Structure formats: structure tokens, C-alpha cells
Amino acid sequence: NAGVTQTPKFRVLKTGQSMTLLCAQDMNHEYMYWYRQDPGMGLRLIHYSVGEGTTAKGEVPDGYNVSRLKKQNFLLGLESAAPSQTSVYFCASSPPGYEQYFGPGTRLTVT
Amino acid sequence: AQSVTQPDIHITVSEGASLELRCNYSYGATPYLFWYVQSPGQGLQLLLKYFSGDTLVQGIKGFEAEFKRSQSSFNLRKPSVHWSDAAEYFCAGAYNNNDMRFGAGTRLTVKP
User: Fold this and answer.
1) Which residues of chain B have pLDDT under 50?
2) Which of B51, B94, B105 sits opposite A42 (nearest CB)?
3) Which residue among A62, A89, B30, B49 has the highest number of C-beta atoms inside a 10 angstrom radius?
């Protein structure tokens, strides 16, 4: 039981490049989330999904897209990376009881 | 607007001393409240949660938190800190699964 895993762990992009972050969970959770963590700001919700095939915007969705084609996977895409998207990205999943389980994070630098 | 505030950015305590980390929430009604811990380079781990009922909540690793409605607070405590408790601690509140708001975090340093 691996819990929540994220791929890759680190990535450096140039401005304007695109990339996809992959999140996978093996706990059969319905809900999945993408957060970004910036110094002094805690975690902020980017997008979330309440089930396979559904996604919704969170607090800071601009510049990101997501897809949930399979229940166990939640992908976060950056179509045209900007330096303001330099951050640590966390994926989480939960059953409908609010306790969220977090992955180890992806550190992204955009130059 | 719904928010969670952690007034202390950084706290240093000596090993064996007691610890209290502050958390205040601003919500229309009492949200569900959580404390998470993040070790360097790791994801967040849930320490404890408050949904309703007993206002003193016990968690893992010897932590507890007390919910005080009159003060809109949910402070985290530990009677005796260990060096391994050095980490960043986040308070969070939510009305539902899709709107969890995190505080900015409190970094704990433990002196030998």
C-alpha cells in the first residue's frame, strides 16, 4: 500500500514550457486534490475532483488544468509555465470524511 | 472570508519543555479543524482532527489540541517536546472536503 505517490519529485522548466504532474493513490478514495505550497502562505487549493471524470476549480486555478480519467490518478498540467508557478506541489486524496492523505510533493522551478 | 491564522511563524523550545502552537479560525460557523505536521522534504501528516463533541482532542505522537469556541481557537499542545518533533505545523479548517483552508504554518525548532 503506497498511499499517495507523485511523479516527478523535482523538475526545472523554462518559461513557456509545458509539463504534467502525475498523482496516483491506491486507497480507492473518491476525492483528490492539487495544492501548491509557497513560503509563508501555507497550502492553497488549485483544483480538485470528487470522482472519476469530474474536476473543479479551487482557490488558485489560473494557469493550470487537470484531468481525472481514472479514479486512482489525478493529473495537473501547466500549458505555458511562468516563474510565478515556481512552487512545491502536493497532491492529496480523501474519502468523504474530510481527512486528507498527502503525497510527498513535487518541487517545480520555472526559470 | 473563511480563514485560518497561525500567529507564530517560528517557535524555538528546549527538548523536554512543553509546547503550545496557536491557531485561530475565522468562519461563519465552527468548521472542522485539523492539525498537520510536515517534516523537511515530506508531505503532510495528520496529527489530529476536531469535528464535534469533546473539545480536547488527542492525536498521534503525544499531541493534543483544545477547541475553544469563545476564542475561535484550536491550539496544539504537547507536554514534553522531543528533538524529532522539529518540523512545520499547519492548522487547517474546512466546511467540506473541497474547501480546506490552511494557515501559513509554524516552524518548530527544538534545542538540545
Assistant:
1) none
2) B105
3) A89
